[in-house]
Amino acid sequence: MSTVPVNITCPYCEFINTRHVDLKNMPSIHGEICYCDCEDGGCDRRFVVDYKVKIETEVRSIDGEKEKV
Ligand SMILES: [Zn+2]
Questions:
Q1: The whole model's pTM is what?
Q2: Measured in angstroms, how far is the CA atom of residue 40 from the centroid of ligand 1?
Q3: Does a structural domain hold residue 60?
Q4: Measured in angstroms, how far is the CA atom of residue 23 from the centroid of ligand 1?
Q5: Is the residue at 63 inside a domain?
Q6: Which domain holds residue 26?
Q7: What stretches in the chain show pLDDT beneath 50?
Q8: 5-24: per-residue pLDDT in tens?
Q9: CA dihedral in degrees (28, 29, 35, 39; nearest 10)?
Q10: Is 65 a member of any domain?
């Protein structure tokens, strides 16, 4: 699975829409038009979504590396 759930808050009614974004086929990063999902309780208005991609890192030590001079 390469889709990730993304929460998108409507700028009018603050309803939180969940959209599954395909990482291999990202929507255009800037200016995607979305509808606030009225079937889930939203207001059915249109708004613009600008996506921001963040990358987090974790580090791990490597055996034997600490003893190196
Ligand atoms: Zn809304």
A1: 0.68
A2: 10
A3: no
A4: 25
A5: no
A6: 3-49
A7: none
A8: 999 999 999 999 998 888 78
A9: 100
A10: no
